[in-house]
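Problem 12. The chain below contains 100 residues. Write out its predicted structure in token notation.
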Amino acid sequence: MEAHSGNASDKKVLESAASRMHNFCKHLQDAPDILYVGDATFYEKCVKEFIEFKWLSLVPENLNEAKKSLNQEDICYQWIEQAYRCALFKKACYSSVEQC
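Solution.
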């Protein structure tokens, strides 16, 4: 665990922390699979470099597929409502990596 300045770049901090944790866990015997979770700043680096481990991230709104989805009317989606609201999408590809 590390504390960072409130002015530190989330993108750099999250990427660095996930990479260090992944390298550390590689050396542990019987280490469980870890799901790395980050915000949209984490997404692109995961797709391009960290594809060897499990990760979950928001999709940046500036990507073309995300823009298309955000511009659709709500009635186009089958919403699942719990304490939050979400919709499932067909699988897509970004930078040759299948997204699901």
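Discussion. The mean pLDDT is 77. Students who got a different answer should revisit the alignment rule from Section 12.3.
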